Amino acid sequence: MFEVLTEVASNKRVTHDTWLMALRSAEIARAARPGQFVMIRLSLGLDPLLRRPFSICGVKEDLFLLLYRLVGKGTLLMTEVRERDRLRVLGPLGKGFARVEKNPTPLLVGGGIGAAPLVFLAQTWAERNLTFMAGFRSAKDILSPQAAIGKDTRLLVTTDDGSQGHHGPVTGLLENVLQESKAEVAVFACGPKLMLRKVAEMTMARGIPCQVSLEANMACGLGACQGCAVKAPATSGKSYVYVCKEGPVFDAKDIDWEGF
User: Fold this and answer.
1) Interatomic CA distance for residues 185 and 220, integer angstroms
2) CA distance 125 to 65
3) What are φ and ψ of residue 27, in 5° steps?
4) pLDDT in tens, 81-139
5) Can you tell me the distance from the alpha carbon of 106 to that of 101, in angstroms, rounded to the nearest whole number?
6) What CATH number has the domain bearing residue 164?
7) What span, in angstroms and rounded, lies between the C-alpha atoms of 21 and 118?
């Protein structure tokens, strides 16, 4: 983990409400693993007071990439950042995805901006025969892994309104792929709570290995504030797990999905 003053290499809009930012830090780019995140201080003043968490969505030499959506005051400040501006960053933080060797075949399942850590995973597994499924509200919201990392990845798209790709939630597409697949597979997912719960139920019912990257509000990113607690199964011997320190990536079996 490093705390560094990074230089902004670029900050570009990639959809109507989503941006891709590249920050220069050889230390963070070298140390980052798919599924990890950074905490960014957006202002030298007191507003906003707290750092904001962002998943790392890729690395290029001494740059690390962040994909973010405009949702409030903090991300509005992000959109106003210009090339050569400097931002104070803490990271990389958290536990990332565990690599699976050779078999089984990876299935990546992302919902909206939740595709960000999976893009990084696809980048590091460029030699693997993987399938990337991503769900969006409509065609205008579609994020392509190629836009972030410049690598050709097989992308299966779903949209809620049917404007492009499979009509319906990405879990419906996953259900089809699991029914048709004859190969051994493992699932890696990130997205909204309801999506992750459905993915966990589908995979656990079939005995398929599944790793999920959880999204949570974080004040510190280090486990001190305990604001990102998530219920753990009663069989685990724990009441809660903490997304920032024990995650954000968990085995699907390590989360109490009924209480999620």
Assistant:
1) 35
2) 17
3) -65, -50
4) 999 999 999 999 999 999 877 678 899 999 988 889 999 998 888 777 788 999 999 99
5) 10
6) 3.40.50.80
7) 16
